[in-house]
Structure formats: structure tokens, C-alpha cells
């Protein structure tokens, strides 16, 4: 990908990772991703963030197409995760920069990752700024958005916010800007990214957005470290982050399950009918067909999460345990749930599912439904009724919020 | 003395250990920590902590 001048003398020098579908080992990224790095040409030539180590030579050629690498004076590390700082040892060796700017937590993490006490670290905190010559860089710590070290760099002269992982999306494309690609696809990718990476820290998102407003930052471009750069839809993505963080109730439910001989699957469909009869939108997702990150993408705007598993060896099926572990860690709030289960003889799975959902602080409509082997007509009617009950609980939440 | 968990990042404040880097001596009860203290891992305020079960 050729470098792109995003503002006068400010260049995107990132890498497009076209074929990566496994993002950091926990989320799918079916559209690939990018690792965005930015080069500012000023009296002090500054590189903001970098790329994974395996792309260090690609970054070298990107920068080299503008200036020789050793001309760089400063490196700013907004985030130490290896997809943004993995090339640091290579860059430090090649560039030998005068200063490396990072947050205080970033300083500790750079030491923990690369074990180089002699690099010229300059830890900064919110409110600190540096001059590059014609430009200033103001730093804003954004702890837990989404790691303790994360921070934003803001260039007031260009009204440019380099936002690191916030506002990012996993999209590999030849386009760099939000007005060059389909907006609905871009917003869907933003939501998928948020609900798999940022969701647990929603409280912090609200606090950071408030801080950005309080500081009166004038932003006409947001340059994240993954995906597309925002220039025509800045208010839209800022508002979207507020909305994601609020997790407003919505009349939609996700039914997620795994099944052996399709009894649990039959129950899923009957529950869905109950929800639909009550006017609640439903998505049924079989965990053998959908990755846990795709379920979270659907749960983004769903208040209901209904979970099913047959009893297998006195427990639940492994893919259901995988999903529940993943969802619990992402700490969705304000959700209503229920469980359903088929079994052959011992039947522990229903209680296990209920306990899991409650431990994830989901308001559970108990006891749910369990079916000994294949559900008959009466059992399916019970499932449908469970769907109606969950629908009522969802609608009550929506009404209370209105 | 009770331990307290940061609800944002999961850090556990152990009164026996305190938070020497944050100026909190070992043996300080969570209740006695000044209100302007923040989580050494993620910067959350005291109000974001909950008693460990």
C-alpha cells in the first residue's frame, strides 16, 4: 500500500494485513486488518506507533519512501501491544531516536516487553505536551482503553487525534478514509471491534469522551491504529462510542447453543418463536457455525441472551463453555437471559448454564426449560413460553429506559 | 482486613501489602486510603472498587 498524506506533512505509513482472519487469538477478523503508523514531518520528525515485528521491513520501506529512517527524531508509543510496538527493537536499532514518548504505564510495559532499560524513555501524562516545531502534540492517557498504558496523541494545529486502538476497525482495504468506503459496513466493523475488545471498559469510554469534551479538543480527523481513518464522519463515530458504552436496551435477543442430536436445536427454534410472537427480534446462532466473537457482534444491540446446551458427560458442551467464558470476560451490562437444555439421563447442563449466566451478572429468567431426550409438542410449547417470558423481560427494560 | 477489587481492571488491593508506589503504607485499611488515590494499574477511582467476596 502506498503511503498516504492525510494532512499536510503527516503521512499514513502503516501496513495492510490482507489475509489475517484471527485477530490476537481471540476474535475473528474476516476482513483482515491494518496496523496504522503515522509519520509527521516537522522540525522534529516523529513516528506515531508502529507495526508487528513481522512487518518491520514493510514499515521500513514505507518510511524510506518519504525520508531515510535515521532522520526520525521522536517515536511516540501510544500503546505497547505487539501489533503496535512489535517493531520497536528494530526501529530503535535503525533510528536511534532522541526520545521515546509513552505513558508511565507504557514505560513499564516497554521494559517488560523488550527489556531495554537504556532506551531514551520520556513518560508523559495527561496534560503534557511537546513541540515538534510548527506543531504541538498533547497527550491524553486513556487507561484501560483498552490496556493500562493506552493513550491518545492530539495535534491541535491539525485538529488531528491519533487515537490508537479506540475508534479502530478490522478492515483491510486499499481505501484509507471513511468517505471512500461503504458507511454501513464501516459502522458494522466498528461495532464488532468495540464489542469484542473495548466493551468491558465502557465506563472508561464514557469518562474519556467526557474528558475530550471538557478539554474542548477540536477534532476534524481521528486516525486510529486499525482500519479506516475518520474525516467525514467524526461526530458519528464519537456518538457511536457513546451509544456502545451506554448499552441501551433494545428489543432483540440472541439464542446461542450447541447440540448433539438436534434436541437442543429444536428447543432453540421454539424459544425463538415465542420471542417473535412478542415482537422481539431474534438471531439464532449455532456455535459450530459462529465464532464467539461473531456472537458478541450480534449481542451488541441485543438485550436478550439465551443459552442452550445438552448435558454431555455431566457438563455442558465445550463450545458453549468457550462462549460463556468469553462473554463473561467482556462484561456486557443490562442483559436478560435464560437457559435451555436437553439431556439423556443425568441432566446437569441447565443448572450449569443458569449459574454461568448469573455469574456474568445477567438477569436470568429461571428455571428455563429442560427436555429429556427429544422435545415433544408439550415441551416445545414450554420453550415457546420461555421465549415469551424473556421477551416480556426485555420489553420491560426497553420501556423503563424510554 | 478486607481486600478490595478494582471493578475496571481486576487489580486487588491487599491491605497487608498496601500500595507503596502510590504512597499507601502496608497495613492501611482500604477505608483509610485518601479519596484521591487511584488504582495503580488502571487509574480508576476509589469508588470503582468493591469488597472482595
Give your account of this protein's structure.
The complex is a heterodimer of chains A (402) and B (53). The model of chain A has no long low-confidence stretch (mean pLDDT 97). In chain A, helix 5 (183-198) crosses helix 7 (234-246), helix 6 crosses helix 7 and helix 8 (263-277) packs across helix 12. By secondary structure, chain A is α/β, with parallel strands linked by helices. In chain A, helix 8 links the parallel strand 17 (252-257) and strand 18. In chain A, 36% of the residues lie in helices and 22% in strands. A seven-stranded mixed sheet of chain A has the order 1-2-7-8-9-10-11. The two termini of chain A are 47 Å apart. Chain A contains twelve helices and 22 strands. Chain A has helices at 56-64, 82-85, 88-95, 104-114, 183-198, 202-214, 234-246, 263-277, 292-299, 318-330, 349-359, 377-401, and strands at residues 4-7, 10-12, 15-17, 22-23, 27-28, 33-35, 38-40, 46-48, 74-76, 99-103, 121-124, 129-131, 136-141, 151-155, 160-164, 221-224, 252-257, 281-286, 304-308, 336-343, 363-364, 369-372. Chain A is elongated, with a radius of gyration of 24 Å. Chain B has 53 residues and is mainly beta. Chain B is 0% helix and 15% strand. Chain B is built from no helices and three strands. Chain B has strands at 4-6, 12-13, 49-51. Chain B has a three-stranded antiparallel sheet with strand order 2-1-3, with no helix packed on it. The radius of gyration of chain B is 10 Å and the shape is globular. The two termini of chain B are 13 Å apart. The model of chain B has no long low-confidence stretch (mean pLDDT 92). The A-B interface holds A 105, 141, 143-144, 148, 201, 203-204 and B 8-9, 41-44, 48.
Amino acid at each position: 500500500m502506498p503511503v498516504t498524506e492525510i494532512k499536510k506533512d503527516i503521512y499514513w505509513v502503516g501496513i495492510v494485513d490482507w489475509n489475517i482472519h484471527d485477530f490476537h487469538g481471540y476474535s475473528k477478523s474476516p476482513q483482515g486488518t491494518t496496523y496504522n503508523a503515522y509519520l509527521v514531518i516537522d522540525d522534529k520528525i516523529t513516528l506515531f506507533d508502529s507495526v508487528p515485528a513481522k512487518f518491520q521491513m514493510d514499515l521500513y520501506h514505507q518510511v524510506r519512501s518519504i525520508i531515510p529512517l535515521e532522520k526520525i527524531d521522536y517515536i511516540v508509543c501510544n500503546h505497547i501491544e505487539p501489533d503496535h510496538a512489535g517493531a520497536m527493537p528494530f526501529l530503535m536499532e535503525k533510528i536511534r531516536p532522541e526520545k521515546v514518548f509513552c505513558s508511565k504505564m507504557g514505560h513499564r510495559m516497554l521494559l517488560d516487553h523488550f527489556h531495554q532499560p537504556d532506551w531514551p524513555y520520556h513518560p508523559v501524562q495527561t496534560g503534557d505536551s511537546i513541540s515538534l516545531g510548527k506543531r504541538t502534540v498533547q497527550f491524553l492517557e486513556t487507561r484501560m482503553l483498552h490496556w493500562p498504558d493506552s493513550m491518545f496523541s492530539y495535534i491541535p494545529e491539525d485538529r488531528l487525534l491519533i487515537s490508537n486502538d479506540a475508534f479502530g476497525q478490522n478492515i483491510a482495504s486499499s481505501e484509507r478514509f471513511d468517505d471512500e468506503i461503504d458507511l454501513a459496513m464501516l459502522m458494522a466493523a466498528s461495532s464488532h471491534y468495540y464489542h469484542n475488545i473495548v466493551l468491558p471498559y465502557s465506563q472508561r469510554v464514557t469518562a474519556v469522551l467526557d474528558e475530550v469534551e471538557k478539554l474542548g479538543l477540536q477534532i476534524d480527523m481521528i486516525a486510529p491504529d486499525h482500519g479506516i481513518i475518520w474525516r467525514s464522519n467524526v461526530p458519528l463515530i464519537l456518538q457511536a462510542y457513546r451509544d456502545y458504552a451506554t448499552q441501551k436496551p433494545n428489543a432483540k435477543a440472541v439464542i446461542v447453543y450447541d447440540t448433539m442430536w438436534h434436541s437442543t436445536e429444536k428447543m432453540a427454534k421454539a424459544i425463538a418463536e415465542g420471542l417473535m410472537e412478542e415482537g422481539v427480534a431474534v438471531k439464532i446462532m449455532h456455535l459450530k457455525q459462529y465464532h464467539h466473537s461473531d456472537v458478541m457482534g450480534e449481542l451488541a444491540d441485543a438485550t436478550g441472551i439465551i443459552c442452550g446446551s445438552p448435558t454431555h458427560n455431566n457438563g455442558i458442551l465445550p463450545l458453549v463453555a468457550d462462549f460463556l467464558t468469553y462473554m463473561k470476560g467482556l462484561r456486557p451490562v443490562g442483559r436478560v437471559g435464560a437457559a435451555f437444555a436437553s439431556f439423556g439421563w443425568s441432566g446437569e447442563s441447565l443448572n450449569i448454564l443458569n449459574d454461568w449466566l448469573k455469574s456474568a451478572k445477567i438477569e436470568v429468567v429461571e428455571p428455563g426449560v429442560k427436555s429429556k431426550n427429544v422435545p415433544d409438542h408439550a415441551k416445545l410449547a414450554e420453550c415457546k413460553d420461555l421465549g415469551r417470558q424473556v421477551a416480556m423481560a426485555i420489553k420491560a427494560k426497553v420501556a423503563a429506559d424510554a | 482486613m478486607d481486600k478490595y477489587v478494582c471493578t475496571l481492571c481486576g487489580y486487588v488491593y491487599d491491605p497487608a501489602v498496601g500500595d507503596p508506589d502510590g504512597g499507601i503504607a502496608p497495613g492501611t485499611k482500604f477505608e483509610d486510603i485518601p479519596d484521591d488515590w487511584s488504582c495503580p494499574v488502571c487509574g480508576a477511582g476509589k469508588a470503582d472498587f468493591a469488597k472482595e467476596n
